[in-house]
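Hi, here's the filled form for the chain we discussed.

Project: internal
Contact: R.S.
Residues: 117
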Amino acid sequence: MKQATARLYIRFGELPKDGKSRVHTSGEPCVEEAGVSVYRAIEANGVYYPELPEESNAAGISDYFRYLMESHSNVYLVTGDLLWLEGHDREPLLANPVVVADLTHIYRQTNKQGGKR
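And the returned structure, exactly as it came back:
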């Protein structure tokens, strides 16, 4: 019998205590979302990567690459209940998110002289 597996997502930053992400403009929160914003996770060669949402807007594309290239946030592999609503940047939103693994080491440069990123 085939066992069902939970869909996995990547979250940049800590899970909000109230379960709702906030959209920031000029560094200030301006909109509360219906759940926690995440990216769908794609697994390749034992590593999980975030998937850019389809038909992303300019802000979403900018955030995506900023998270990958410049983020100092912790990065988590999470699961949860997918909401029918999308986030401000067309990203998936989760209710009841649960951290499955800490992926921060994959997204941080460990050695400034040619080390892994």
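Let me know if anything looks off before we file it.
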